[in-house]
Amino acid sequence: MEIWSALSRAKRGFRDDLRLHVVAIASLVVAFLCLGTALLSVENLTRIASRWSQTQHMTVYLRDQAKEADVAQLRLVLESLGEISKVEHISAVRARELFAEQTNMSSADLAQLPTDAFPASLELDLADGVPSARIEKIAARVQRFAGVEEVETYRSFFGQLRSLIDAGRSGALLLSLLVVVCVLAVIGNTIRLAVANRRREIEVLKLCGATDSFVRGPFVLEGVIQAVTASTLAMLLLFVAYAALHGHVESTLTALTGVRTVFLNPLTVLGTIAAAAFVGAIGSALSLRRYLQV
Amino acid sequence: MANPGSGRKGNVVRPSVFRGKHRDDAPKPILVMEEVYKYFRRDVPTLRNVNLTVERGEFVFVTGPSGSGKSTLLQLVYRQHTVDSGRILFSGRDVSRLTDSSIPFLRRNLGIVFQDFKVVPHWTVYENVAVSLEILGTNARLARSRVAEALERVGLAGRGNERTETLSGGEQQRVAIARAIVTEPALLLADEPTGNLDPQLAIDILTLFEEIHEAGTTVLFATHDHSLLATSPHRLVVIDDGRLIEASQGLRAWSARMQSLGASHAS
Q1: Could you point out which of A74, B46, B152, B192 has its C-alpha 20 to 30 Å from the C-alpha of B161?
Q2: CATH fold group of domain B6-13+26-266
Q3: Predicted TM-score of the model (pTM)
Q4: CA-based nearest distance A23→chain B, Å
Q5: Between A121 and B265, where is the model more confident?
């Protein structure tokens, strides 16, 4: 019964202070749009990192003067390891050809590059699920073989990418906190203004015997409705923007990263809206405390 | 008539609940004030040693000059303020000892009418009256019939859909009275309810209170308007300089009493 009464009074509150609530919702939409964009970026960066970190690859660069017997022995050893699924020998000439294919560089320009820029190598594909520690151990052992110049495990690259994503996550977290503060401030101030406009109403309710929770109910609901409406609108706008841009940039991004971009996970969207509702309720309840003494 | 709060007994404190330890068949006074003091400034009591007993079904005028403490007396009853010493028993229960969370349940047993009406101007007449029932959790159908009945009693039948701000002052006060009586309170407190009205409207409003009283409601009516007191035969108490003086029936006796008090002060 009390919830219906609160809903009906909240509806009356929206009717009486419509402009105030519309302005508040518009401000909140901007805040949630910023948060949604940050979450979308982090979600896609995480996918890229996850995809790339699963690409288990290792390159063994060979010395220019490496003997064929040493290379053959090394290859035999590597092929006998269970963690390595494929070994391919790339000669210095082939490496130069591959580079030319990938970069469309003219043969004249290519000829100007130093000969040692393209060392011969063994390209290793690793089996799925090989732990990083094991990869590092294999790399250290391979490094000791005669004819081996350097072993590249790409761990440092993945480490840098991981750092970038961690920084993105921290940024999103900070932005989330900023949005929480923003939501609390906007909803708190809106409710304070609504309370000021409806001070007579609160006084009448208290003098007629309304409890604090009865008085508080519609204001808390108004805060929740504002936050839910704003966050839902922000998510819809973000989806529309994502859908509009997706067609234009998807092929380029996929080519660059090897990963298809995705919109926010439905759980993330629902979680954002639920968190917004919670913060809206808290913001309203906090802003009302001092006005209930009649 | 059905109790409007019957569906929510746990939340509604009816006067019977306030009876105290000694229950017997003899009717208890609805309101008792014993040696009540109230200070807003440390050295000057607004109310000093006030003793007052109001029996069930009585109509009592509280009068006195502006600033004498009439409103404070009423505010102590509905716990806008708390006594500094003494006690106020409403149906046997000391209201000054109620916790903050119990005050709403005290107020649900009181009807309060104010000089400035305290209606919500942008609400309809219906919404302003029904709010008391909404607080009690009365269902919508019962509320509609109770509000219609209350509006009929105050002479506003059929005007429930009008916005309250479009009504005249006298009509707005009638809305406030309807809101106060719609829950059938044990005690109706009126704090200068005619203070903002012209003399003819004031008499109309007093007549309305008398009709409500005749229906069985106890009324405590604070006013400084002597013209109202002159036309009414009800019990009269006077507050002057924070002290309450029991006048006998009617203004004439009170005037005589005031004159004799003046003479004794002069001697």
Answers
A1: B192
A2: Rossmann fold (3.40.50)
A3: 0.69
A4: 22
A5: A121
